[in-house]
Design goal:
Length: 365
Amino acid sequence: MREQNGSAVTMTEVARHAGVSLGTASKALNGQGKLRDETRRRVMDAAQELGFQPNALARGLARNRSYTVGLLATESLDRFSLPLHRGVENALGADRISVFLCDGRGDPVREQFYIDQLLSRRVDGIVVTGVQSDERPSLGQLELPVPVVYAYSRSADADDLSVLPDDRFGGRMAAEHLLGLGRRTFAHITGPISFAAVRERLDGFRSALAESGVELSDERVYSGPWRESFGRQAAAELLRRHPDVDAVLCGSDQVARGVMDSLRENGYRVPDDVAVIGYDNWELLALDARPALTSIDMGLEELGRYAAQRLLAMIDGPRDGGVVRMPPHLIVRESCGATAGVTPRPLSERPFPAGPTRQEAPEGA
């Protein structure tokens, strides 16, 4: 509700309507002080009834805060960054904090420019996001006056707080799921081994298999570009060398789509003969795959939300450091056989490829 002359409702009016002092109303509306829940609720109800809109500048001055945060992105429109940024914004928005999005594109010059701009606007903190978990230079060398949290981007400085997906656990989760389905002959087709996430997923996958007495030899691990075409080529080579394979973990959903295409082209049924699990849970690919693709979801929106919450805690308290790894989720669909109740065909009935479908073996074979 507004006054008839159009002027905004003041905090004094809220205090009078709630039957409290101006100081008590201010503490209740700014989340400060030790007030009884009933008193704080009465003030909030009065503010809502009168249509009170707090003055953001006054709120900031009262607590020496700007209630703004910088979001420094490596890529602002990447399919990994979108859910990550949504999680960050949701957490900050719930605390009535505005976000300045800056697309640094991994360029140190652009990043420096945006950091200077953010500091000139007196942001309360900065979230640095990436599209892979490999190390990047720390902003700590700039001796920033505000806390920084890295989300899906690992700072090279151990004193910084980096929040990452637990890719090693993701690999273990896939292995344990496939073992539980009775699969025993495994392969792994993934992205470039230079990626930290690729190495960690392989380590988790291989370790979980070894604990069950199953070996994953280097001959059954293929690494190459994050493309469907590589998945097709690697799977064809895998079937030529190891036609008895009955389960494949893929390093991405794109690779998995290519793997399933190649299996189908060579007469193998998914999941009857070979179970397939992807990674990323990119629904655009996973849901339209034939059959629908089981995939590991890194939970990037949850990761972004958690990183923002940690930043808020650091703004109001001591700064934190180290690496926090967020557990992924297994999204079960038809490609692994968990929902279909299928049984692999005997080896004598399976279609062994006559030879390779390309001239060279996949990179890392």
